[in-house]
Amino acid sequence: MIWLRVVTLILLSLGAWQSFKAMGTPVRFAGRRYYRQADGSYRRWYGGRAYRPDEIGL
């Protein structure tokens, strides 16, 4: 059963890495990174509230 835990951990790590890479190139403003969303808003890497482009200096 240890092998099942190891495989699960590897697959979870792979999924997290793919999600991270899919975020794209961040926009930097005031030392913080914002990622563009499909609706045109920007968010931090952990989610949080949506920012309009004019709020982050674009």
Task: Using the CA coordinates, give the radius of gyration.
Answer: 16 Å
Q: What is the average per-residue confidence, as pLDDT, rounded to a whole number?
A: 91
Uncertain regions spanning at least 5 consecutive residues: none
How many extended strands? 4
What features would you describe in this structure?
It is a single chain. With 58 residues, the protein is an alpha+beta fold. The chain has a domain at 24-58. 36% of the residues lie in helices and 28% in strands. It contains one helix and four strands. The chain has one helix at 2-22, and strands at 27-29, 32-36, 42-44, 47-51. The longest helix is centred in the N-terminal third of the chain and has 21 residues, at 2-22. It is elongated and about 50 Å long. 2% of the residues are buried. The model has no long low-confidence stretch (mean pLDDT 91).
Report a brief summary of the structure.
With 58 residues, the chain is of the alpha+beta class. Helices cover 36% and strands 28% of the residues.
List keywords for this structure.
4 strands; alpha+beta; 4-stranded antiparallel β-sheet; elongated; 58 residues; 1 helix; 36% helix
List the helices and strands and how they pair.
Blueprint: H1 2-22, E1 27-29, E2 32-36, E3 42-44, E4 47-51
Antiparallel strand pairs: 1-2, 2-3, 3-4
